[in-house]
Amino acid sequence: MSSIAIITGATGGLGQEFVSELLKENIHEIWAVARNEKRLSELKAKFGEKVRKIRCDLSNADDLSELFSIIETEKPDIRLLINNAGIGKMGASTEFSDDDIVNEIDINCKSICLLCNHSIPFMSVGSRILNISSASSFQPVPYINLYAASKAFVRSYTRALNVELKSKGIICTAVCPGWIDTEMLQKEYNGKPVKFPGLVSPNRVAVQALRDSAKGRDMSVCTFFVKYEHFLSKILPSKWIMNIWLNGIKDYV
Ligand SMILES: NC(=O)c1ccc[n+]([C@@H]2O[C@H](COP(=O)([O-])OP(=O)(O)OC[C@H]3O[C@@H](n4cnc5c(N)ncnc54)[C@H](OP(=O)(O)O)[C@@H]3O)[C@@H](O)[C@H]2O)c1
């Protein structure tokens, strides 16, 4: 039985760093999940034979069923499941279309729970699940409201799942990074560069996340800056933090 890692959003900024780091581990195959066939092929060309391309739109029920049936047919030894794919849109919640809302919840929340449940039967002692949440999960965040709420869901779900899976020896870690330098971020607004306090490289986040999960931690918070934000979110009223945030984004919304 071959040992595998499944990484969703493997072609993105953070996903590629997970692929690169996992190639150093004793894993036979990395199942790279994303929608764009061309970027999947580029990923395979970059990282080699261990990468298996799986084209799947995580918001599409048929695509998900196909992925689950591959897992059920091949019965791999899943050592790692990294639910990394995620989308986020900035703007007033009332301006989101129905599709915007459903897609974001489907990708950021629903697909994670489904992939966990379809993978856990093929995991054993020492297997690890990393679900990518965000520092935005620490408090409500106006104008990335749906995104932040979806990431709060991921953090809560993952930490509780970690407790539920303790008896099976499976570790679940909610990864809560601050701003990461990837394509997800809109770097310019009205011709002006956007400021991202505490911006870090995706490699730093991936390395820290894998290290924290290997230590059995249910949360991974990368950099002192984000740990400080986490601490503040516990002691300051959410209203204060939301006002600081609103002041920081007043040029963009
Ligand atoms: N960047 C940040 O500042 C930041 C901060 C905190 C947390 N995060 C979280 O970190 C994770 C990775 O983000 P990133 O910054 O690396 O973003 P990214 O560079 O935009 O990558 C997103 C990845 O998700 C895949 N994806 C998007 N929609 C998909 C769908 N419907 N089905 C399957 N795959 C899909 C994309 O591939 P295809 O387009 O080919 O499908 C791509 O591989 C996300 O969960 C994000 O919320 C990011």
Write the layout of secondary structure elements.
Blueprint: E1 3-8, H1 13-22, E2 29-34, H2 37-47, E3 51-55, H3 61-74, E4 77-83, H4 98-119, E5 128-132, H5 145-164, E6 171-175, E7 188-189, E8 192-193, H6 202-214, E9 219-220, H7 224-235, H8 238-248
Parallel strand pairs: 1-2, 1-4, 2-3, 4-5, 5-6, 6-9
Antiparallel strand pairs: 7-8
Helix pairs in contact: 1-6, 3-4, 4-5
Bound molecules: NADP nicotinamide-adenine-dinucleotide phosphate.
Can you walk through the features of this model?
This protein has 8 helices and 9 strands. It has 253 residues and is α/β, with parallel strands linked by helices. It has one domain (3-248): 3-Layer(aba) Sandwich (Rossmann fold), CATH 3.40.50. α2 (37-47) links the parallel β2 (29-34) and β3 (51-55). α3 (61-74) packs parallel to α4 (98-119). The radius of gyration is 18 Å and the shape is globular. The mean pLDDT is 97.
What's the CATH H-level superfamily name? NAD(P)-binding Rossmann-like Domain
Distance between the termini: 52 Å
Number of strands: 9
Q: Could you give a short account of the major beta sheet?
A: 7 strands, parallel
How many DSSP helices?
8
CATH class: Alpha Beta
- Morphology: globular
Kindly provide the radius of gyration, computed on alpha-carbon positions and rounded to a whole number of angstroms: 18 Å
Strand order of the largest sheet: 3-2-1-4-5-6-9
- Low-confidence sequence ranges: none
Which small molecules are bound?
NADP nicotinamide-adenine-dinucleotide phosphate
Q: Structural class, please?
A: alpha/beta
In percent, how much strand structure appears in the residues? Answer: 15-25%
User: Level of helix content?
Assistant: 40-55%
Mean pLDDT: 97
Any idea of the CATH topology? Answer: Rossmann fold
How many individual domains?
1
| Helix and strand sequence | EHEHEHEHEHEEEHEHH
